[in-house]
Every structure is written in C-alpha cells, then in structure tokens.
Specification:
Layout lengths: L1 H22 L4 H6 L1 E3 L9 E3 L10 E4 L2 E4 L13 E7 L2 E9 L4 E8 L12 E6 L39 E8 L4 E6 L2 E7 L3 H8 L15 E5 L6 E10 L2
Antiparallel strand pairs: 1-13, 2-5, 3-4, 4-13, 5-12, 6-9, 6-13, 7-8, 7-12, 9-10, 10-11
Length: 245
C-alpha cells in the first residue's frame, strides 16, 4: 500500500510539473508572431520590487506555474509590495491570465517609470483587476471606471455580463498599445476599453481623476509593466508580451 501511495504522489508531482510547463509556454503561432514570456513560470527572473533591485522577500508565491499575490492586509503595497518588469516597453501586446479570490483587488499597470515616488502602489496606467461585486473600490470613481477591465479611474470597461467568469476561475486579460498611442483593453477575448494616449480627450480625463497632480501622467515614451500587490489573494500565469514597431 505504501508503494502505491508513493507512486501516486510521484505521478501527481509529475503532472503538476507538466501542467506548469504547459501553462507558461508559447504556442507555435505566438512564437511566429513574435511573443515572448514576460514571466517564465518558475522564478523571479526579469522581475523586481518597485523602487528596489531585488524581488520582494515575502508577499508573493511562485508555485506550479502560478504567480500569486498572497493575502495580507487588503491595502495598497500589501506585505510584499508591487513588482515590476526589469525591462521597459513602448508599444506592445501584453497577454495574461488572472484569477481573483472573493473581494480581491489587484491590477496590471503599464508605462510605470518609477519617477513618480510614492509609498503606496506604483503610478501608471492600469488594467483594473477586481471583484466588482465584493470590493468597495468598484463603487468609487466615476461611472464604474474602477471596475474589472477598466482603465482605472479614467475609462469604465464596456463589458457584457456574459464575458465575465466567476470568481475563482481563470480570466484572460490583454493590453494593446500601438505605436500611434492607440490603446485597447481586452477581457476574455472582448474589447472593453479603447483610447488615445496623450490626446486632448485623455488629458481631460486625467485632469478629472486621482492622477491630476502627476505631471504628464501616462504619457511616458516607455515604462515597466507592474503587477499590483493590494493585500489580497490574486493569481497570474501565462504572462506574455509582443513588441510592436
């Protein structure tokens, strides 16, 4: 009986490794299109804590091909703090899968320059990752511009209810930034936000938002990709990026 249990345990381990590998790889089409893995599915290579040289010593977990923000205090910067890609990007297509726990908050930010010094979360344009039903931030802002998929505090996501997957299941997100500064947010294959970065309309939105005091907010030529630690349990995988020229 003990031998059967040992074999069963080993098989489970092999399956977990194979699943992790399959989750964080590129398809033939993605390779042909020029995508690369932004997170390798194994360790902190290519990532670090915001404003620091090293990856956070706590608050984050990498296990079975899944990158998880661990639950802590439910506040910005959590227990580990935000992480950023070491590389900076200008025009790109960013793909990622995410899974929320009940009442959770996180986000994917882009054009994060680290010039805006803050003790809270890093400053950048944000694809909101949120439990719309149970996190209070969903009721703040204007017209739902702090809900899942929105350009946080600026443009609400235009998403049909049918596009959403239940809390605890995996969703797919995508941010497309074209060389002409046209930007799109996609949620589970549906375009939910689009805008022109740096346009008069964009500047007007910023002037009426929490970012109004940050000079030239969201208009940097390039910046880091950031994953937010907001003190809630949120998982990510399949983080991929393609450079656009």
């Amino acid at each position: 009986m003990k031998n059967y249990r040992l074999i069963y345990t080993l098989l489970l381990g092999i399956c977990a490794v194979n699943l992790a590998y399959a989750q964080n790889t590129l398809s033939k089409d993605e390779k042909k299109a020029g995508f690369k893995m932004l997170w390798n599915g194994k360790d902190a290579t290519g990532w670090r804590a915001i404003f620091k040289a090293q990856f956070p010593a706590r608050g984050w977990e990498m296990k079975n091909g899944i990158l998880t923000v661990l639950a802590s205090n439910g506040q910005e910067q959590g227990s580990g703090g935000d992480i950023v890609s070491k590389e900076e990007f200008s025009a790109f297509i960013l793909k990622f899968d995410f899974k929320l726990s009940q009442g959770a908050n996180s986000g994917i930010k882009y054009f994060v320059t680290e010039e805006e010094k803050t003790n809270m979360s890093g400053i950048g344009l944000e694809f909101q990752v949120l439990d719309d039903e149970k996190h209070p931030d969903a009721k703040l802002g204007k017209n739902g511009n702090r809900k899942l998929g929105s350009l946080y505090d600026l443009i609400p996501a235009n998403k049909p209810v049918s596009v959403l997957k239940p809390i605890g299941e995996w969703n797919s997100g995508e941010v497309r930034v074209y060389p002409n500064n046209h930007v799109e947010h996609w949620l589970n294959g549906v375009k939910v936000v689009e805008y022109e970065r740096g346009s008069a309309a964009f500047k007007q939105l910023v002037a009426g938002s929490k970012y109004k005091n940050w000079k030239n907010f969201g208009e940097a030529e390039k910046g880091h990709i950031l994953i937010q630690d907001h003190g809630n349990n949120v998982s990510y995988k399949n983080i991929k990026i393609k450079i656009l020229k």
